Amino acid sequence: MDTLAFILTQCVNAFSQAALLFFLGCGLTLIFGIMRIVNFAHGTIYMAGAYLGYTSVRWLGGFVAALMVAPIVVGVLGVLFELFILRRLYGRDGNAFLMVTFGLALVLGDAVQVVWGAPPLQVPPPAALAGIAFFLDEPFPVYRLFLIGFGTVMAIGMWQFLERTRLGLLIRATSQNPDMVHALGTDVRVVRSGVFGIGCGLAALGGVLAAPLVTASLGMSLAAVVDAFVIVIIGGMGSFLGSLIGALIVAFVQVFGNYYLPEAALAFMYLVMLTVLVVRPGGLLGKEE
Amino acid sequence: MLRIAGLNTHYGASHVLQGVDLEVPEGSIGAVLGRNGVGKSTMMKTVMGLVRPSGGEVELEGHNIFGWAPHRVARAGVAYVPEGRLIFPDLTVVENIKVAERKPAKDWPVDRLFEVFPSLRERQGNRGSQLSGGEQQMLAIARALVSDPKVMLLDEPSQGLAPLVVRELANVIRRMRQEGVTILLVEQNMKLAEAVANRLHVMVKGKVVYSADPERFRDEEAEIRSRYLTV
Fold this sequence. Notes:
The complex is a heterodimer of chains A (289) and B (231). Chain A has eleven helices and two strands; from the N terminus they run ααααββααααααα. Chain A has a domain at 14-122 and 131-217. Chain A has helices spanning 3-35, 42-60, 63-84, 94-116, 142-164, 166-176, 178-183, 188-214, 220-235, 240-260, 265-279; strands spanning 132-135, 138-141. Chain A starts with a helix and ends in a 10-residue tail after the last helix. Chain A is an all-alpha fold. Chain B has a domain at 1-77 and 186-231: P-loop containing nucleotide triphosphate hydrolases (Rossmann fold), CATH 3.40.50. Chain B has 231 residues and is an alpha/beta fold. Chain B has helices at 40-48, 70-75, 93-100, 110-116, 118-122, 133-145, 163-178, 190-196, 214-229; strands at 2-11, 14-24, 29-33, 53-60, 63-64, 78-81, 151-155, 182-186, 199-204, 207-212. Chain B is globular. In chain B, 44% of the residues are buried. A six-stranded mixed sheet of chain B has the order 6-7-8-3-9-10, with helices on both faces. A four-stranded antiparallel sheet of chain B has the order 2-1-4-5. Chain A binds chain B through residues 166, 169-170, 172-173, 176-177, 179-188, and chain B through 48-50, 69-71, 73-75, 80, 82, 86, 88-91, 95, 98-100, 102, 143, 147.
């Protein structure tokens, strides 16, 4: 295999991995930016998305349907969780959220095991995306190429949503000063519920997309929550663009690290995070608080 | 237009507002003077709903708005220009205004605001954090006006501004009154308060202890200053 083809293959792997990580990190950073809460259940929500994707594919018979149903179901559940549980905690210190979201991670993790069982579940990619495309005589899984395209479209879509819509404006304003937004006539509690729902939905979407690649398994939640935190710490808590950059960095470090130094790949990821923390404690695009 | 009676607010164990009585008639400017820490800003936050009152009455046009959440108070027609302006630092000038424009403004659309505040028009694409103190103050007022308010709460607008900018501010405040906006102004700058207010009030330890029209205030100014305002 020549060098160019090798780099191309690894880049496709890295960019497709970045797409999955982006959904994870973007949801976490949105939630943190607007609510100043650390959502420990984020990885479990991602995992639940993968399992819901599995069931949606079986019941509704289509991957596209799963891509829509799982995030919406999880998003609505997220809104309900915010309404009935998190809302009682605003004004308390951050530890309350830590405990409650950690509790959610445990409960949701067990619930998934009860409903779907312990063995990993195979989610086949849709037939149209199952094949292999050749480029420079090298094989590329079509599904990975699809992930890159879909991730790019969604990232642009999210960015435009935040920059151009009224809800996006309110989300950005609320992340800067919620009391002021409230005093200017917008019920910030609604913005908070909405953002929590959107963040959970994005994580679930990432889970559905990951399922055909890695199978839906109980183990994916821990890896996901760690990745999500590293992305957000590198990119800067609360920064949308930061989550995109963080996802790209983490994906490249993981993919190339796994090839060259598989036993040290994880350590390398933390090393990158540490370096960022030393140079810019608030993350690449974050603000120090 | 705005009537406050027996308003009480506690921060934990400390009793900040101890029965504030104040009335601002329609189309007038009421100014509240007082030393630091007597509860002026707390009064504004309490009226706005940002701080929970523990007792009393707040009425807007005869309707009780006591204890309402901030967004409801705002929608009822109260606009808030907080102490320290609290511009959204990462939003542009136009975006700062748009946050408050819940429905298209009738009296104070963005074009008109740019006429009143020409410096904001020039800087409309700049972020809030890039503006000077004076520009931020004008933006905070523009952001409040875009909701076509009946009453505006103006908390220490002259803070940290150069004398020339304070004069411009006085003109803006008078112009708003001419257009029918009722204003409750909290100020440390006595000259500004005297220059624009229809009625002046002095607050001491969470209570309004003195109220007078500008003529009488001027006559008694030396005494009021030494009794209530200087440290």
